[in-house]
Amino acid sequence: MNRNKGVTGPQGFRAAGIAAGIKESGALDLTLVVNDGPSDAAAGVFTTNKVKAAPVLWSQQVIQSRRLTAVVLNSGGANACTGPEGFQDTHATAEKVAEVLGTGAVDVAVCSTGLIGERLPMDKILTGVENVAKELDSSVEAGLNAATGVMTTDSRPKQSWQASEQGWSVGGFVKGAGMLAPNLATMLSVITTDAKISGDQLDKALRLATSRTFDRLDVDGGTSTNDTVLVLASGASGVEPSFEDFTALLTEVAGDLVKQLQGDAEGVTKEISITVKQAATEAEAVHIGRTVAEDNLVKTALFGSDPNWGRIAMALGRADAQIDPDKLQILINGVSLYRNGTRDRDRSEADLSGRDIEIVIDLNWGDAEATVLTTDLSHAYVEENSAYSS
User: What's the pLDDT score for residue 380?
Assistant: First the structure.
């Protein structure tokens, strides 16, 4: 996996990121990704939050055609809960991109991230679109600038690229550091590929990939108003992989992006994986993992490097799933601390002093399995989210 490349890694794509003046800090805040083809296949998945930002509503409409020429993204303002005027701002942004690129507004997806409830500075957005289009390039640096332009509380840009043995590749970037939960996260991600694949197949592959990657990250239980993952296919490699091969590589790149989200989550000091084994169904395994991941008593114990298996047992026991406490086993970093209804080895044997923590919950009930990723609840998380308006 190559984290030095992102959306400009695959053939047929140009990108740019500039400082349009949306952020008072002067940081990069406007990104444009363009698919030069020959194909313009595209697909997207979006937040399940009932309070959806204007750019989500717009992009959900235009993606129905399974094609896109460009994606424009801004940080510094979510354009969420801004009423009809906010939707008009999104439409105007798409129209401006279309004008600059010589395409139609229905071929342009729009994404925004930042403070909820404020209108965007449209004069800066529209002028910024003209300027960012002048910077479009297929270079590694252009891809990095694009990844940087979408950052909010992120400490670093996050991108990934991987090539197949057949000569096609998948690349992408993602932003997100807080309000991370199932149903994606407070995150925006653009993924590109030069494989030949239809829009309908792209949609199917994206949903399979995100269900096992983005939907398995849960930092704090918050589902954002702006979550968006878009994938664009240029077909520029001339190679048409099997659906299985394409989905596998797409999932691999998405998984790497998610690991970077976990590692850069707000206030993170522990990167935690929760694997639920031998569940009745995969859905129940995911549900149990999420229930444990969102439990504040579990998260604070892990922040303190305390292998408190009792809190894990409490959390999983309240999940709406088939669980028999006399059958289950809880392991932390390879040490069995609870088995068949009572404690097993002494908790002092589990070393949690490092950054990575692996929790395994074996239900001994069925044959389904799933892993959910989360982080600890630290002083820094509380301080950052009490000081930063999100």
Answer: 67
**What mean pLDDT, rounded, does the chain reach?**
92
In this prediction, residues 162-175 reach a mean pLDDT of 97
Amino acid occupying residue 11: Q
Within a 10 A sphere around the Cβ of 156, how many other Cβ atoms? 11
Is the separation of the CB atoms in 228 and 60 below 8 Å?
no
Per DSSP, the three-state class of 108 is strand
Which residues are known to be catalytic?
Answer: 186
Contact residues for 102 (Cβ-Cβ < 8 A; gap 6+): none
Question: Chain-centre distance of CA 264, in angstroms?
Answer: 12
What mean pLDDT comes out for the span 385-390? 58
| Cα–Cα nearest to 158, from 150, 169, 168 | 150
Question: Which residues does 341 contact at the CB level (< 8 Å), separation at least 6?
Answer: 325, 326
Tell me which H or E stretch contains 57. helix 54-62
d(CA 338, CA 331): 7
pLDDT bucket at 153, cuts 50 / 70 / 90: confident
Least confident range from 124-133, 264-273, 337-346: namely: 264-273
What is the CA angle 291-56-292, rounded to 5? 5
Which residues partner with 15 through β-bridges? 33, 137
User: What pLDDT score does 154 carry?
Assistant: 87
Q: With CA atoms as reference, report the closest residue to 14 among 118, 105, 139.
A: 139
Cα–Cα distance, 204 to 189 (Å, whole number): 17
Q: Exposure string (b/e) for 206-231, b if CB count within 10 Å is 16 or more? A: beebbebbbbbbbbbbbbbbbbbbbb
Q: Is 321 exposed, middle or buried (0-12, 13-18, 19+ CB in 10 A)?
A: buried
- Among 329, 268, 321, smallest CA distance to 299 is for 268
Residue showing tokens 């991108």? 159
